[in-house]
Design brief:
Shape of chain A: elongated
Oligomer: heterodimer
Radius of gyration of chain B: 37 Å
Distance between the termini of chain B: 57 Å
CATH architecture of the largest domain in chain B: Orthogonal Bundle
Largest sheet of chain A: 2 strands, antiparallel
Largest interface: A-B, 28 and 29 residues
CATH superfamily of the largest domain in chain B: DnaJ domain
Strand content of chain B: 15-25%
Helix content of chain B: 25-40%
Number of helices of chain B: 10
Structural class of chain A: mainly alpha
Shape of chain B: flat
Order of helices and strands of chain A: HHEEHHH
Structural class of chain B: alpha+beta
Strand order of the largest sheet of chain B: 6-7-11-10
Radius of gyration of chain A: 19 Å
Helix content of chain A: 55-70%
Number of domains of chain B: 3
Distance between the termini of chain A: 43 Å
Largest sheet of chain B: 4 strands, mixed
CATH topology of the largest domain in chain B: Helix Hairpins
CATH class of the largest domain in chain B: Mainly Alpha
Strand order of the largest sheet of chain A: 1-2
Number of strands of chain B: 11
């Protein structure tokens, strides 16, 4: 668990007030309350992601909400696919799996 | 290679900071894990490229590396997991689109897996349009030029009568509305999409609306001229050959190419004559042996050296 001070130390590129703005936009979702935010590993990775998008991949600020929304939808889908795959592995009899693979052209 | 950051970024040892930055951004855009979900190689490449950039864009570290004081991984911080790694685990639900994590059956899944996850029987539920189905059909050259109706037997036993319009070109896709997959719950059927391939013809070729033909003629017909019968897509026509024609002489028959259809006017038939000797008449041979033309025959191979 990291505090905002930890975060600002790691990400020197962050301008003052920038992270608070991102939290207000829901782009970063730490636990806790303003003044006592608690950041998990995923939140740190999320901040890294936003900085990569903006500073390395030239995604301008007005486009960031759209890009993050698309990424989140993409990952929602991937998480569900992963869960679906696990569910199939645990419940589908082997002959059903073969039929499924054949149907999918695999 | 993993140890040489210059090679990793593809820059020279004396590259400027700007060149290094440009090279890094180009590679980062290509291999960023969030743009390549599921691709382990991209993630590895991205880590290496990022580490190389971190080393070379810091003047002090770069200097130390150049002096041999640290190696290519000397600047490596403890690797943090990429966003992708978190996002694909259960923890990723923190950033679910639209706030709270939705179980199977949420709005983003319902339309994709309606029959399995909502447990609806096949009879219930909202009407849905049937699937479009794709088929291939091969047509004869003249059938495609003149138009025809072709019968297609589908794997499920249905028969489709496919109307091929005049002038259909290779690769055209014909859409038969409502002849594809059945709709569900009272929804409309999908379409049948039929891609047309065209077989070549023995002597006609085609370019757009125009048809081309090499026409064999006898030496007498070429020298003396006369009327000959010429095949066209619409049937035989009479054509007059001028005296003193030769192999390569081109004649244009307007309107005898691909027939008019829609906005396109009829094309032309281009006939190129080819003089064919056939079995040589003994009199002709005898004549040529003794033939001394008033003007010596021009050598047709003169320009070939």
């Amino acid at each position: 668990m990291f505090t905002i001070e930890n975060i600002l130390l790691v990400f020197q590129e962050l301008q003052p007030g920038e992270l608070e703005r991102w939290i207000g936009n829901q782009w970063v979702r730490p636990e806790g309350k303003p003044g006592a935010w608690r950041f998990h590993d995923i939140d740190m990775a999320r901040i890294r992601l936003i900085l990569d998008l903006r500073d390395t991949m030239d995604v301008e600020e007005p486009a960031l909400p759209t890009v993050l929304s698309l990424l989140d939808q993409l990952y929602d889908m991937r998480r569900r696919m992963i869960r679906l795959n696990e569910a199939m592995e645990q419940t589908l009899p082997t002959e059903f799996r073969a039929a499924l693979r054949a149907h999918l052209g695999g | 290679m993993a140890d040489d950051p210059y090679k990793l970024l593809g820059v020279a040892k004396d590259a400027t900071a700007e060149e290094i930055r440009k090279a890094y951004r180009k590679l980062a855009k290509k291999h960023h894990p969030d743009l390549n979900p599921g691709n382990k190689a991209a993630e590895e490449t991205f880590k290496l490229v990022s580490a190389a950039n971190e080393l070379l864009s810091d003047p002090e570290k770069r200097a130390r590396y150049d002096r041999g004081e640290i190696d290519g991984s000397g600047a490596e911080k403890p690797q943090r997991q990429s966003y992708r790694h978190h996002a694909e685990s259960g923890a990723g639900a923190r950033y679910a689109h639209g706030g709270a994590e939705q179980e199977f059956g949420g709005e983003n899944f319902e339309d994709l897996f309606s029959t399995i996850f909502t447990g609806r029987a096949a009879g219930g539920g909202r009407p849905a349009r049937g699937q479009d189905e794709h088929y291939a059909l091969t047509a004869e050259f003249l059938d495609a030029v003149n138009g025809t109706t072709s019968r297609l037997s589908l794997p499920d036993g249905r028969i489709l009568d496919v109307k091929i319009p005049p002038g259909t070109e290779e690769g055209s896709v014909l859409r038969l509305r409502g002849r594809g997959g059945a709709g569900r719950n009272g929804g409309p059927a999908g379409d049948a999409l039929i891609e047309i391939s065209i077989l070549p013809h023995k002597f006609f070729t085609r370019d757009g609306q125009d048809i081309f033909l090499d026409l064999p003629v006898t030496i007498s017909e070429a020298v003396l001229g006369g009327k000959v019968t010429v095949p066209t897509p619409a049937g035989q026509v009479a054509m007059t050959i001028k005296p003193h024609s030769d192999t390569g002489t081109k004649l244009r028959l307007a309107g005898r190419g691909v027939p008019a259809h829609g906005k396109r006017p009829a094309g032309a038939l281009y006939v190129t004559l080819r003089v064919v000797l056939g079995t040589v008449d003994p009199e002709l041979e005898a004549f040529l042996k003794n033939w001394k033309p008033a003007e010596a025959q021009k050598n047709p191979r003169a320009e070939m050296g």
